[in-house]
Design goal:
The chain is mostly helical. It has helices spanning 6-13, 69-76, 86-99, 105-112, 123-143, and strands spanning 32-35, 38-41, 55-56.
Amino acid sequence: MRRKTLLNALREDAGLTGTKEGCAEGECGACTVWLGGQAVMSCLVPAPQAHNASVVTIEGLASGAGLHPLQRAFIEHGAVQCGYCIPGMLMAGAKLLEEWPEPDVEQAQIALSGNICRCTGYRKILDAVLSVNRRDAKGAKARD
């Protein structure tokens, strides 16, 4: 009998299909979600391990009707191509920004290193991640 992974439980049982299955081996990052506040590859997590834990998927990244600042940055920088890797990239990038509000290029590269993209070449994705706090800081100054 096959054990259900967190990825399968999210997609099949909860109907949250934004999290993608890429490799099913924890190598591509397409299935990245937050479990108990940590970014994890949901294809490697047995579903029961998430019992009573906080789970955030790409569907929960935005707040209310507004996009998360990183989602807006991905759109503005043209960082989305086929879209398959984007949920995992967004979850990994948003976790980086939560932990390091002003990351440098190396920190961003390390944070996204577990996520594979075959379309964009990563430059636009890195630009989007690195732009978030600079833009938000400018917006805050403009509002003050």
